[in-house]
Amino acid sequence: MTAFTNYFSDVYRTFRSVAIGMSVTMRQMFAPVVTLQYPNVKKAMPERVRNRLYMNFDDCIGCELCAKACPVDCIDIEVMKAPPTENLGETSTGQKKRIYVTKFDIDIAKCCYCGLCVYPCPTECLKMTDVYEFSEFDRNNLIYNFGTMTPMEIEVAKGKVKQNEEEQAAKKAVAAAQAAAAKATAAAQAAATPAPVPPSPAVLAPQPPDKDAQTPPKAE
Amino acid sequence: MEFITSALENQILLTVLNAALPLLFILPYALVTIYIEMKMAAHMQNRLAYMQTGYHGTLQPFADIVKLLQKEDIIPTAADKFLFILAPYLVFVGTYASFAVLPFSSAYAGSELDLGIFYLVAASSLVVVGILMAGWASNNKWSLFGALRSAAQIVSYEIPAALAILGVVMIAGTMNLQTLTSLQSGGIHEWIIFGGTLPLGHKLALIPFIVVLFVIYLISSMAEVNRTPFDIPEAESELVQGYNTEYSGMKFAIFYLAEYANLFLVSAVAVVLFFGGWASPFGELMSGPLWGTFWFVTKGMLFVCLNIWLRWTLPRMRVDQLMYVSWKVMTPFALLCVIVIGFILVL
After folding, report:
1. Which residue has the higher pLDDT, A185 or B237?
2. Are the C-beta atoms of residues B227 and B219 closer than 8 Å to each other?
3. Does residue A212 have a pLDDT over 70?
4. Is the pLDDT assigned to residue A133 strictly greater than 70?
5. Cβ-based neighbour number of residue B333 at 10 Å
6. Which of A16, B240, B287, B289 is the S-S candidate for B107 at Cβ 3.0 to 4.6 Å?
7. Does B74 touch chain A (CB under 8 A)?
8. Does A201 have pLDDT greater than 70?
C-alpha cells in the first residue's frame, strides 16, 4: 500500500516542485538585472584602489628607493650625480634635485600591483591610479618610459658630469699636493717639537669642503 | 485560400505557393523565438542577454544567421557522407510535412486532410529517423548515443501524446484539424479544454480528465522536441551536443531551425486540440481569416513561451527517470483518462 501512496505522492510532489520552480523563475524574470554593461558603464573603483602606476617625473629626485623596494624589479632607473654647480630645479615639495635621472622605465607587465614602491618615495611622485584598461598588442608597449630627458640632454649632462669630474680630479691633485706639502712641513715641525699635535686638522684644513677625507693618504 | 486561387490560375504555381506559405511563417518565427528565448533565459538569471546589435540586441538573430551561413561546413572524413548530408534535411522535412495540416486560419490550411492529426503524428515521427541517421552517420560515440537516446525518448513519449490526442478526437469526433477548430469557434466556453460543444453535464464531468490529458500532452510534446528537462539527446554535460555534435555551418542551422519549427508545431497542436486553434475566445467578435491567423499564432507563441519558461526552470532528467515518467506515470494516466472519457461520452 505504501508503494501505491508513494506513487501518487511522487506525482503530486513533482507538480508541486515544478510549480515552485516556475514561480521562482517568473519572479526572477522581473527582478532587477545585475549585469553591468562594462565598456559603457563602469563600476566605481574603491578609494584606495591599486591599478596602473603613475609617475610624476618632474618630482623625481633619483633616489632609487622605489626600484629597491620593488619585489619584481620592474622599475629600471639610471642616474648620474649632477655637478654641485648645476641647478636642476626643485620638486613640488621643495626638495632640491641633485641627480640626473637619465632613465626611468616601469615594466607594467611585470608589475604585481603591490604598491610597495609608493610608500618609500620621499617626494610622493609615484602613485597607483584607478586606470585598469591598458592592454596592448605588443608587450614592449607595456614598458612605460617616464624619463623625460632626451638623448641629447643626456649627452650634455654626461659632458657636464665628465667635465666636473675632471675639474674635481684636478682640484684633488692640487689639494693632494698641498696636503702633502702641509704634511711634510708638519712632520718637520713634529720632528722639531715632539708635542703630539693631531695631524688630521692640518691635513683637512686646506681641502675643499666636499673633498674626500681618504684622498690624501692615497695620494702619498 | 479563395483569393489566392482566384488570383493564380496556374495549378502548379498554386501548389508551390500553398506549400511555401508555412515556410514564410517559420523563418521569421524562428528568428523571433531565438530572440525571445535568449531574453527570457537571461532575465530569469538576472542578466541582460544581447544588447549591442540593434536596439536591445534585436538584430542579433540575423547576425547569428549570417555567422552560421559563412561558417565552414565540415563533413568528418569517417562520416557516412550521403546520410550525413541527408539527415538534417530529413529532420526538417519531417517537421515541415506536419505543418501541412495545421489550420493557420479559417481560410488557410496547407491541406484539409480528413486524417489530419493522424497524419501529423505519423509525419512528425520522421524526425526520429533523421536524428538516428545523423547520429549514425556522424561516426561519433556522442552522436550515436544522443541519437539512440532521442529515438528511445521520442518513441516512448509518442504513446502518451497519441493517447491524449485520441481523447480529444473522441470528444470532437473528427481527425480533421480544420473541422476540429471550427467546432470550437463559438467562444472560449466551446474550447475542448472546457469540454467542447457537449451538454453542460457532460462538460463538467469531462473537464478534469481533459485537463489531465492536456498536461500529459504538454509534457510529452516537450519530450518530443528534445528540450530541457527532456534534452538528454543533446545533454551538453554528457554528450557534447548529442546527435548534432559533428554538424556545423548551414547543416547545424537547419537542425536548429527544425527544432524551433518543431517547438511551434507541438504548441500549435496543443492549441488546436485544446484551445480552439484560430478561433477567437470571444466567439464572433474579432474573428475572420486574418484575426484567425492572429489568434492561432498568439496562442501558439504563448505555448512556445511556456516551453521556454519550463526549459530555463527545470534541470535535465536522468534517462531512467525519463522512461519511468513516460511508461509508468503518463501512459497509465492517459489510458485511464481515455477510458473514462469514452464512458462519459457513451453515457
Report:
1. A185
2. no
3. no
4. yes
5. 19
6. B289
7. no
8. no
Which residue is closest to B309 within chain A, CA to CA? A22
Is B63 or A84 the better-scoring residue by pLDDT?
B63
**pLDDT value at position A196?**
53
Q: Mind listing the pLDDT tens digit for each residue in A90-115?
A: 777 777 888 888 888 888 888 888 88
Length of chain A: 220
User: Which residues on chain B are in Cβ contact (under 8 Å) with A26?
Assistant: 309
Query: CB B43 to CB A28 under 8 A?
Result: yes
Burial class (CB in 10 A: 0-12, 13-18, 19+), B266: buried
Q: What is the DSSP string of A5-68?
A: HHHHHHHHHHHHHHHHHHHHHHHHHTSPP----TTTS-PPPPTT---SEEE-GGG-----HHHH
Strand intervals (E) in A36-157: 53-55, 75-81, 99-107, 126-128, 143-145
Spacing of C-alpha A5 from chain mean position:
77
Give the whole-angstrom CA distance, residue B217 versus residue B266.
9
Q: What is the ipTM of this complex?
A: 0.76
Closest-CA distance, A79 to chain B, in angstroms, reads: 51
Which of A29, A32, A34 shows the shortest C-beta gap to B40? Answer: A29
Q: Label residue A215 by pLDDT band (50, 70, 90).
A: very low
In chain A, where are the structural domains located?
Answer: 53-152, 167-187+202-220
Of residues B47, B51, B309, nearest to A22 (C-beta): B309
Contact B47 A31 (CB under 8 A): no
Residue B147 carries which side chain, given as an amino acid letter? A
**B313–A35 CB contact, under 8 Å:** no
- Please identify every stretch of chain B with a pLDDT value under 70, giving residue numbers as ranges: 1-9
Which chain A residues have a beta carbon less than 8 Å from that of B329?
7, 11
Note whether B48 contacts A35, CB cutoff 8 Å. yes
Identify all chain A residues contacting B40, using CB atoms and an 8 Å cutoff: 29
Cα atoms found within 13 Å of the Cα of residue A208, Cβ hemisphere only:
13
Contacts of residue B158, defined as CB under 8 A and 6 or more positions apart, other chains included, come to B121, B125, B220, B224
Query: Of all helices (H) and strands (E), which one includes residue B337?
Result: helix B331-346
Q: Hey, is the C-beta of B336 within 8 angstroms of any chain A C-beta? A: no
> In the CATH hierarchy, which top-level class contains the domain A53-152?
alpha beta
Query: B161: Cβ–Cβ under 8 A, 6 or more apart, which residues?
Result: B121, B216, B217, B220, B221, B224
User: Which residue do the cell numbers 485537463 mark?
Assistant: B211
The residue among B46, B228, B311 with the most chain A CBs within 10 A of its CB, best to mutate, is B46
